[in-house]
Amino acid sequence: MSTAAATAALTSSTFARRPRAPRGGRRTVRPRGCAFHPEVARAVESLQAEFREVDRALALNSSRVSTAFRAARVAPHHFGGSTGYGHDDAGGREALDAVFANVVGAEAAIVRPQFFSGTHAIACALFALLRPGLELLAVAGPPYDTLEEVIGIRGSANVGSLKDFGVTYREVPLAADGGLDWDALAHAVGPETGCALIQRSCGYSWRKSLGVADIRRAIDLIKMQNPNCKVMVDNCYGEFVETSEPPMVGADLIAGSLIKNPGGTIAPCGGYVAGKKDLVAAAAARLSAPGLGVEFGSAPGHVMRAMFQGLFLAPQMVGEAVKGGLLIAEVMSAKGYRVQPLPRAPRHDIVQAVELGNRERLIAFCEVVQQTCPVGSFIKPTAGETPGYASEVIFADGTFMDGSTSELSCDGPLRDPYAVFCQGGTHWTQWALVLGEVLKII
Fold first, then answer.
1. Residues 191 and 304 in one domain
2. How many helices and strands in the chain, by DSSP H and E?
3. 257 shares its domain with 338
4. What is the domain range of residue 391?
5. What is the pLDDT of residues 185-243, one digit of tens each?
6. CB of 101 within 8 A of CB of 108?
7. Which helix (H) or strand (E) holds 171?
């Protein structure tokens, strides 16, 4: 059954037809066989054109991934894994790196389970690009919370932050509309700027996520001012949302996590760095040690197989997450809540933010999401301090892989404007069901 046919079946007139109210009062009764709350069903019906556009991008990305797998001649022996130093991995590392580099349009890539988070991979990339006396320039406002200690903005004194190594930091504030301040960026890069950091996704900021077209424009502006300045893109949550990736438009390096988009909800761990060959090698030296390069590091066979298979499935999983975000925006904005991105606006990552306005409503929203998850549905999310974050944060992530936000999750810092950031969903209907429960409490 096609996606359109399946959607039509799920949102047939049965869902939209309101039952006759009984005598003595009005009450809403869900029709027999209806999976969705009526308001959610109507929103789904209205989004069919947008869903078809997502499927178009999904098909193009899937074609690119399939072509890369065939070009690398991926075979079962690549899934065998290795032990110890990892010398006997039968070419699995090399094949996976080649596939990933091909998919994102990079000269080289290193895709490893030894990266234990996206922040870890980004940190390796930044240390590869920067040396004492150089400046790191964040061109999209403040970075994500977990990078603050890597840079040395907050804490981390004498533990090896960039600041400890003599790297200075500066940032270009966002424009009033939440996008890049193009006028400021046109004069922001100096001779001492060794790396310009572009954060593609919104993080925990109420800002626009950046599309590849905006990233291309920013890179052009940066290189015009200082051709030697390297451009590093924090690509987390953005992979496969569009039909091109930052290395295709001039980014020197990108980095991200495999338990986000490119792991396809299957990779159990890991991250990646991709881009110019010499810079990827420098990042690999930060992951391992100078001189060891990318030829070391063992991985169990089930992990190697999962990373290959997750990458193959990633376009499909990302497409479903994007549809879920469209549905969240449509339903929550109709109830009067501010959302970012706006309903039906172009998508550049899988994150959908909803401003809930107060602590209690944010906690309640996360509790509902947790209760609808397949794992740990009985667990009550509790706000608290989390390593790397400046504020109390609450997470709802009843996922098969710990922290795999691409499965289905939401989280948010307990600070104004008390926004919840929703991600993932292996099928858009997961968010449709969650929203039905959310509507009961708001």
1. yes
2. 13, 12
3. no
4. 38-60+315-439
5. 999 999 999 999 999 999 888 889 999 999 999 999 999 999 999 999 999 999 999 99
6. yes
7. strand 168-171
